[in-house]
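U., I forgot to send this yesterday:
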Amino acid sequence: MMHDIENSSGNNSNNSNSKRGEELGLLSFEADVMIIILSQFLTVYDVVKLDTAYCNKMQRAQLLSILSLKSIVYKHIHFSDSFTYIDKFMQWIGKRTIGLAGLSIEYKREYSKIFIPFGDTVDNHIKLSYLSDEGLVWLSHCTSLQSLDVSWCKNIHDISIVQIGRHCSNLKELDISFCTNITDISLVEIGR
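Result:
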């Protein structure tokens, strides 16, 4: 602590405190420690907050380069059907090629338990999701994706599922039940 009392005016004391704060900042750790922190202790939601909080371009570039490493894979993200910014979140993940093993959208289950009388369509009972083809196309950049549940999504078409099929070769589970705009074209691409 001797170096804190070098100047009687107190200017060095403030500088050394800010340097010490910088030394203990997240980006002051070695890359392998950062990988452990980002993958084991922080969720992808925390990482989004970190990304938007950094104003220094050099630090932000360093954080994003570590995030794009293939060794960081987030296990599963659950979204509620009322999350309005899901496409923007998928864009953020896709641009940075964040490793993501699974994604699901959880709908309120009362929609799936409704008795649907003969002649009525399922579409009348589906709550509209904010996930669209644009969001799924961005998600297709995440080649580590293994599980995807977009059941009951009314805004999903063949164009996004085909992209998922072409780029997400690790995909093992896909739930597109009650996605009324998906045709055999998507299923053929997924099968390939």
